[in-house]
Write a structure and sequence with these properties.
Elements: H1 2-14, H2 19-28, H3 36-51, H4 61-64, H5 79-83, H6 87-111, H7 114-140, H8 148-176, H9 183-187, H10 189-206, H11 213-242, H12 245-269, E1 273-275, E2 278-282, H13 283-304, H14 308-311, H15 314-319, E3 333-336, H16 341-344, E4 347-350, H17 352-367, H18 369-381, H19 397-419, H20 424-432, H21 436-452
Antiparallel strand pairs: 1-2, 3-4
Helix pairs in contact: 7-11, 8-10, 8-11, 11-12, 11-19, 12-13, 12-17, 12-19, 13-17, 18-19
Length: 460
Amino acid sequence: RMADDATAAAQQKQQPLPEGLRQRIAAADPPRPTSDESDMDAMLRDEEESDAPQRKPRESVGRLTKMLPQGSDKMGFLDPLIEMVPEKWRNWVVRGIFTIIMVSGFSFIVSRGPIALMLLVFGIQFMCFYELISIGLAVYRVYDLPYFRLLSWYFLLTSNYFFFGESLIEFWGVLLRKDQFLHFLVAYHRLISFGLYICGFVGFVLSLQKGYYMRQFSLFAWTHVCLLLIVSQSFLIIVNIFQGILWFLIPVAMIICCDIMSYMFGFFWGKTPLIKLSPKKTWEGFIGGAASTVIFGLVLSYALLSSPFYVCPVEDYAVDNANCTIPSSFQLREFALPKPLGWIKPKISLYPFILHSIPMSLFASLLGPFGGFFASGFKRAFKIKDFGAIIPGHGGLMDRFDCQLLMGTFVNVYIHTFIKVPNPSKLLTQILWLSHENQLVIFESLKENLQNAGVLPVGQ
């Protein structure tokens, strides 16, 4: 009989419980994770919540970002005049006035040469980084976290040193005509850069506080994403300046033209929405801006490509900006026309840069705006209208230069793919940095190759 009772009890255990009873049991005693890793996660979470300081109730993202400055049509002492303009035209007038001011100021800086342009890029980089970091601070409400702002700007400086150290030292060496200018910084550049970054990394780890781990690591990631978007692309833009001011000026002017003409076509004739991320963007403005940018790029390229000031690389410009060797991209060449056009005229004389301006203008007008769409999505994610309020009618600097960063990267890729050739001056400088024994090895190898090619007679 005892065996029968045990068998019955076992069968009863195997029978499934009613659904309602099983749900009541699960609600009263929820299953706990059984793995050691899950147990450790729960312990850490409980410890963090118990040690966290008392916080205010969580606020919405929209309310948190209201503290950020937003763009407006206010112009200070000119506000009484602007208020007389109909509301529909008010933003148009303000944007037009400050567009003229910005274009005039940019033209003046361009006339000052590559050093002024590099300082301009650095200034824009710092302001864009400030606007993005300010959003992170506002959203996460961590103004009381120790050293976050200090570490963010420290990482910005170390990143700039890593990206710009070697190139800027070489640039100033050319200006000063010194082959060994700050050579020790070039020789140990990566070691110094890594050491500086490690100092910031250690400082961040030491600043971690219980109860704020998730927020601090989120802001750490935020800082590095901003560095990737801002510093790396501004570095590529400055590298474009080294190739010649025109490789910087023409793409920037194309983006400016595309922005202005897209706004005007959309304002006067826009009816068909283009993309939900930017409700004000229309197909009419997009197409009108693209056509205008291609025409504008061809005209401006032809007007400036004959000036050595704009086309000479930095190495030649530093020596003499009027008598440098004009790069082949800016010299008149003959091109054979394909059939059936070749039957009418076999060859045509063109400047290669005119042909290069076409893909740049197409990118600026067709793909460049997606940098603006990306920025619009970013602002919608954090429920803000603009990145800042430094430019009336336009917003922050990031609102104006979101497309420029993408355009500068494309131009750098285009130059390295289709244009750039080894620079003899730069190669000679690098050879002079070698020891005398290695210089002799290069000399003998070069001499042998020239003799085999018949350029030098054998035996000399």
